[in-house]
Inverse folding.
């Protein structure tokens, strides 16, 4: 009867595993730093600005990096660029 | 918090494909893969021709992410959709799902052998140390980590293609529309970013799929 | 999605998908020519209003691009969302539940009914039930089927079931292995499947006796088994619905996805995937039933396919008409007696 027991255990395990798949899972994984279990990605503002670059922000300060990018985005705006000349 | 988006102004795009070329060069994109492309609607018809530059739009509710069997996609804090090539199995499902045809594969795919998916990263690299050789080889340049914006938009000659924080580029565009007086369609935003939710500024009025 | 959306959505979406593939070029709001004329007119009357162009874009019709590649000239495709809603919605949910319920039902049936044993004593006279070709065809199909089922289910459900348990790195490795096994064993499965159909089609043709078998569910719930030919109606159901219809459907849709290098459109592959997914759930569900009946469910069934021989008592109890035909000489079948038969039986 031990073979049958094995089958019963395997069937129960399969059922349990299958059951886990039947819930209403949120399939969209929202990335949260440290929560996504895949390989971690570093945050852009955790880098030091390139020594020779024009971009300047304070390493590790998200706000300063965003401000830098926002002002850089204005390079795409002629109404701002025209005023420089 | 910044929410990175692309915006293409159909009144300005002249289909020069400069964005496509710049992207290929900056990211040293593999053969056969173009992360960005320009599509011309009603090509050659006077008075009805419009061009749009399209790449991954970094959707809020990204279909690629939802269908990926190995869950290799993630949103960065800036709303950029990136993926881990070490996990990718090359099944092609993201290509089935994507409205914009963004995911590309380096191989033709007999027996489903497509290689690892490649797509626009908003010049934000991928899950490797920022600026590392590994990151560059797999995903291309990480310009965000250098305090820069995607090259396609930054070098766009007519500034048809805008890239940056969604609110900022929406404002730039709104200003243009005000000057022009009309024509405020923002192509692709409704599909990519959906209906504006609380806290998020709505897309410029008259947004079209 | 709201709860209502979960129910109504898929239905709307199935209809939409059916349309998307066939009538992609025609269902657009106006032909390209009409939209061009509207746009040209509008440009004069309301400069900067490009609504007809956006309509043209939404039609999903190919435009112009200088970038080579599949459908690079389509700016936006909407059927991807439809496909996603179906695959991640009903196919994953109902498919998953179906498999769980089937496993539980089989387990329940086993504990209530137990194994169907031989009533009479074995005679020691063995009748050949499956020849060499039959068995080779059956087992190559069986083995490749199991490989396809396990690897396919990993691709569909692994993310929900295995990934949280074994983590990203290991699961990605397993998924890549599954995908490659699925893709390369697939063609072998198709060949085995065809061989199986050839081997068993003749004795699976419907007979008058099948009606009675169906009416009483084979006598499963009480008393005697209904007499049947070489295969009973239940087995014939599995043959026609499972092996033939689902097997061929899985093969065709699988091949469409397997060779994306023939430039079939995304809509075609989405449709193939949907059919493949629905078929997979049904095929595996039926397959589980078949595997149960062929191993645990009926004493001697597994030995029959393994050695090719059954005891005369087994034949008489489970396939009486077949047994009678052999006895009367209407069907020629090899028989074994004595020492060899003893050996076969003990296998
Ligand atoms: C026993 C029969 C089969 C079963 C149970 C089965 C099951 C599955 C399942 C569950 C999926 C995942 C669907 C999804 O994630 O949406 C899948 C995908 C797929 N199947 Fe099958 N399948 C079978 C036969 C075949 C055959 C005969 C072929 C081709 C010759 C094939 C080719 C594919 C392909 C190409 C995919 C897409 C994923 C990939 O590239 O690996 N399948 N199958």
């Amino acid at each position: 009867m031990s073979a049958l027991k094995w089958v019963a255990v395997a069937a129960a395990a399969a059922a349990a595993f299958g059951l886990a798949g039947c819930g209403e899972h949120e399939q969209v994984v929202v990335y949260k730093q440290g929560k996504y279990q895949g390989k971690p990605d570093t945050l852009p503002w955790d880098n030091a600005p390139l020594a020779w670059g024009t971009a300047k922000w304070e390493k590790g300060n998200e706000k300063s990096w965003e401000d830098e990018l926002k002002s850089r985005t204005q390079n795409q705006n002629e109404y701002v660029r025209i005023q420089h000349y | 918090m910044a929410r990175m988006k692309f915006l293409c102004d159909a009144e300005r795009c002249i289909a020069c494909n400069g964005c496509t070329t710049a992207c290929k060069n900056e990211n040293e994109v593999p053969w056969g893969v173009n992360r960005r492309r320009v599509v011309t609607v009603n090509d050659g018809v006077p008075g009805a021709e419009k061009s749009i530059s399209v790449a991954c739009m970094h959707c809020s509710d990204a279909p690629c992410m939802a269908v990926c069997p190995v869950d290799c996609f993630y949103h960065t804090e800036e709303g950029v959709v990136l993926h881990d090539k070490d996990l990718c199995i090359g099944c092609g499902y993201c290509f089935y799902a994507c409205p914009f045809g963004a995911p590309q594969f380096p191989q033709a795919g007999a027996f489903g052998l497509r290689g690892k998916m490649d797509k626009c990263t908003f010049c934000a690299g991928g899950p490797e140390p920022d600026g590392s050789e590994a990151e560059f080889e797999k995903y291309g340049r990480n310009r965000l980590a250098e305090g820069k914006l995607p090259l396609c938009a930054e070098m766009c000659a007519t500034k048809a293609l805008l890239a940056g924080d969604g609110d900022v580029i929406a404002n730039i565009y709104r200003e243009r529309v005000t000057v022009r007086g009309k024509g405020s369609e923002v192509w692709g935003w409704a599909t990519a970013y959906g209906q504006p939710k609380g806290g998020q500024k709505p897309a410029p009025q008259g947004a079209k799929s | 999605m709201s709860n209502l959306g979960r129910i109504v959505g898929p239905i709307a979406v199935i209809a939409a998908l059916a349309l998307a593939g066939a009538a992609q070029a025609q269902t657009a709001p106006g032909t390209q020519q009409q939209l061009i004329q509207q746009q040209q007119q509008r440009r004069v009357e309301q400069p900067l209003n490009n609504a007809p162009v956006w309509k043209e874009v939404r039609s999903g019709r190919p435009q112009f691009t200088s970038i080579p590649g599949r459908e690079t000239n389509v700016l936006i495709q909407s059927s991807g969302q439809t496909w996603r809603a179906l695959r991640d919605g009903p196919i994953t949910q109902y498919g998953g539940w179906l498999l769980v319920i089937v496993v539980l039902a089989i387990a329940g049936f086993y504990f209530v009914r137990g194994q169907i044993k031989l009533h009479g004593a074995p005679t020691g006279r063995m009748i050949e039930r499956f020849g060499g070709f039959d068995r080779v065809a059956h087992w190559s199909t069986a083995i490749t089927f199991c490989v396809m089922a396990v690897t396919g289910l990993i691709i569909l459900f692994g993310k929900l079931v295995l990934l949280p348990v074994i983590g990203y790195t290991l699961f990605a490795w397993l998924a890549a292995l599954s995908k490659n096994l699925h893709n390369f064993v697939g063609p072998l499965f198709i060949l085995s499947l065809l061989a199986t159909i050839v081997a068993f089609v003749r004795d699976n043709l419907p007979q008058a006796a099948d009606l009675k078998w169906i009416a009483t569910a084979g006598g499963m719930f009480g008393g005697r088994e209904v007499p049947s030919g070489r295969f009973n109606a239940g087995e014939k159901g599995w043959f026609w619905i499972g092996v033939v219809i689902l097997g061929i459907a899985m093969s065709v849709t699988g091949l469409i996805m397997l060779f994306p290098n023939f430039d079939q459109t995304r809509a075609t592959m989405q449709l193939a995937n949907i059919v493949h997914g629905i078929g997979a759930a049904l095929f595996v569900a039926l397959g589980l039933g078949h595997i149960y009946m062929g191993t645990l469910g009926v004493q001697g069934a597994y030995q029959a396919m393994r050695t090719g021989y059954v005891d005369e008592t087994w034949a008489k109890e489970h396939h009486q008409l077949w047994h009678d035909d052999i006895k009367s000489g209407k069907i020629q079948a090899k028989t074994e007696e004595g020492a060899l038969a003893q050996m076969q039986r003990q296998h």
